[in-house]
Amino acid sequence: MVKRQPLRGLLPLIFLISASLLCILLSRCFHVEYANLAVWALFFVWTAFMLSLWDECPIRKIPHPLGGFLLLILSMLSGLFHFWVMKQFKLESFYWPIIANLFLGLGITVAFEFPKFFLQRLIFWYALAITLVISVGMVPAIWFAWFVYFFFWLEQWPVKQTPQPIKGFLTFLILAALSFILEASFRTFGTSFFKPEGSLWFVLFVWWLVSTSWQFETWPFKSFPQPLKGFLGLILCVLGASFFFFVITKLKIAYPLAANITWVFVSWLYSWDICMDKWPA
What we know:
Layout: H1 7-29, H2 34-52, H3 66-88, H4 95-112, H5 118-135, H6 143-153, H7 166-188, H8 196-215, H9 228-250, H10 255-276
């Protein structure tokens, strides 16, 4: 078993990139629009996240890689089921609001470490998502990149030892502040999180945040103290996202198309690590 980075991160990265490309190829064969593929991928990864918080999930007790593959299949089918149910009820216009709000529910659960029981969490996630859709619509997911950064690059610095619920409130206060800074940065460059080019840069940023913190486990800055470690990780991810954005722009790929495809890669980044636990490394 490979235990050293960067090979430990590179091996699963090869597998999950291959899986992403296979999904994209199959979507073309079955004439699935890329926007719908991205929605399915996000429901897919949401289920993987959901199952990761279910400590007593029976499949998680099956040894790897079989247990991991079963979790992947279950997550993929659940993503398809969410997509199908909403389509049957002609709720296609609510795809993005529902999935964005479901992720917000997950974020709240993790930040506040509440509630503990899986069924309570499940009811809370769906109730919150539906309530928000009815009352305010879609909560902008600009906070999500900073959620990944705060928990996996900054490792909850500087509130890690703060008791709940103050810790949860401070966490979302920090996420909100960082989100406003990101949107202000977008506007400085003449765009916005809500415009195609801003949305594309955002998802590329998420890809770099996830791959460097999950697959590569913050290598090569793993042993650095906080907040230096988080600051260096931020520079790395901003530069990486900007480079990818530059390449896509030079290739003249439509921004919405590139963003939808990138969400597929992001979904597999998360799901593979959650379900497969860095197998085969």
